[in-house]
Amino acid sequence: MQNSGLNRRKRLNSSSNSLGGGGQLVPRKTLGSRVGLKARSDKKKKWYKEERIPFVDDFLSRHSRCEFKLWIHGTTLDESPPWNWTGVIITSCGKSAHDVHEIFPQGRGGNAIPVDGDERNMIALCREHHIYVTQNPAWSRLKSYTR
To answer: Looking at CB atoms within 10 Å, which of 1, 12, 39, 42 has the fewest?
Structure first.
């Protein structure tokens, strides 16, 4: 005889665990007891303090504005002078930059500081656009903000 799973379903629905109904929903952990990210090692902290932070400060002093490009689609080509032949205005954000975004991230073999002074992997972004780029990876790859 084949098991229909009725007993298991009854057991799950009658209990007050997270799989079934019946009981009050209570979070397992309070906000203060959340398990956070793993702490940086002492070696990584030293590298971050001695190399990454000075690089970020220097990079943002030279690239003080957000370099995020906005693509605004137009309805016709002959509306106003800034339209290009595709009917799209391409403009920069222009807000103050607060973050250095790595186009080729460390997790995929990129560098967090430039090698031999090559900064083509870095772009200065405001916080809002840095969050947008990191939370939308498919769009970021399409627009070449991430590789």
So the answer is: 1
